[in-house]
């Protein structure tokens, strides 16, 4: 893989980044060359996922049973504020990581996370839960965005899909394990404080590792930018390395076909997750399922989602991004339809597996496609913009699902989100082009032959 000594970089790394690279350390791109740091970041992201997982089973039940929150829209307010906070922070995380370095942003995210489980344990009213979820959203935006960017920095272009698969598998695998564990803890010891003690441990370990062991990776992005090779088809020639923040936002959100297609698909994907997080436990409880069974269903979906990404991320490096994303969205739509039609644990379990598989096809592949298209010089900002839209889906999903559920019931809300998901897959199929260079090259050679 490509390598360069620090002395070569000193001429074009700006001063704010000069302190972030250890003197004498050789910077190289590649998963094998950076295996230790990459593995450490996988562990850190698992802890980030655990902070989210502590809420998946317990918080909707806490709102209904402890704080008496009955209206679906009000009950989903914690997801709404989480989504808004995380979406906005995602955007700034990309800009800040370019300006100040990746590691300081990661540490700041963990510092914000520390009070979250304490607030959830001691909250005397639902308003305190809302505040905790604002902090959780800010923390997730800073920590998860930064671990994504740092892994993309380290591995270079060749195995980007596999790297994103590992990253998201660690995060959402931890969401699943924690959701399952908190379900059993809640059934055995009550909804508070036992389930949230896990969050205290996750925050302490994550902050310690990020402060003491994680190294800055911005120099790797600078190295890739210096050796960046334009696409043979000339598609990205207009996306030169010098783009303003506003230009990056417009290209990622609306103008560039692949980037904007990925952004809308990410938003709709998290509509699904907001729905699953906020309303599925209430639907399952209304059917008479125990808290432990609700926890199992709440864990099954992110477990398949997390583990599946170990496969789908690597497959997207071989088969390409576009159709993996489109088919994943359609599979999610079918799974949601089954959940809306069913009333038994067995069918819901099958649908949860399908929903997790569809999400696994989409999640790392969308991130990899952003990395494919965005120039290394503004890639962190593009990732931040994409994650702004993607995690804005939590807020839109909570609001939309809550309004529809209050007016027509939970099952009608599920059908509404399923329809949007199927439409999103169609947009990807029509508008997005294949972004992976290897796949594009093979297709072009086949056509020329």
Folded structure, characterized:
This protein is mainly alpha-helical and 449 residues long. It has a single domain, classed as MFS general substrate transporter like domains (Growth Hormone, Chain: A, Up-down Bundle), CATH 1.20.1250.20. Helix content is 79%, strand content 1%. The radius of gyration is 21 Å and the shape is globular.
What is the percentage of strand-forming residues?
Answer: under 5%
CATH class membership? Mainly Alpha
Major sheet: arrangement of strands: 1-2
Low-confidence segments, given as residue ranges, are 1-24, 440-449
Number of domains: 1
Q: Count up the helices.
A: 21
**Percent of residues in helices:** over 70%
- The helix/strand series, from N terminus to C terminus, equals EHHEHHHHHHHHHHHHHHHHHHH
Number of separate strands: 2
User: In the CATH hierarchy, what is the superfamily?
Assistant: MFS general substrate transporter like domains
What is the overall silhouette? Answer: globular
- Distance N to C terminus: 30 Å
User: Main β-sheet, in a few words?
Assistant: 2 strands, antiparallel
CATH topology: Growth Hormone, Chain: A
Sequence-ordered SSE layout with sheet pairings:
Elements: E1 3-4, H1 6-9, H2 15-18, E2 27-28, H3 35-56, H4 58-65, H5 72-75, H6 77-100, H7 102-113, H8 115-122, H9 126-155, H10 160-189, H11 194-212, H12 218-226, H13 245-255, H14 257-278, H15 280-286, H16 291-319, H17 322-341, H18 345-373, H19 379-408, H20 410-431, H21 437-448
